[in-house]
Amino acid sequence: xxxxxxxxxxxxxxxxxxxxxxxxxxxxxxxxxxxxxxxxxxxxxxxxxxxxxxxxxxxxxxxxxxxxxxxxxxxxxxxxxxxxxxxxxxxxxxxxxxxxxxxxxxxxxxxxxxxxxxxxxxxxxxxxxxxxxxxxxxxxxxxxxxxxxxxxxxx
Length: 155
Prior knowledge:
elongated, 8 helices
């Protein structure tokens, strides 16, 4: 799902949560919104690591180009393609945020809500179009990536 789509969903969700639970305050709603979008910073970090390039513009276009290549493949082929391991996209980070919310600051609960919203929005796309569940676990995605074709190596 594109960042713009996450932003639209995130703003409506954060507004709805604020209207239902005004005690979270504007700050809580803002953190929920921002975390629902900024979780994708791991895509940028992966691009920087893989390509040794800091251009956000080129990173965005690299993902768009490779996403089109990936989407053009049949479902069976998509399962053999590795797009990257994104360390913020998985249950492990949600568990860490929950623990941080318990022991450090309740602000981490707002981040947890935003991250969870983002992952829930990503799941239907991943399941329906890609026929996989990589974003459920960072560890699973990493282990699964071994032996797959990297998206850059596609024709």
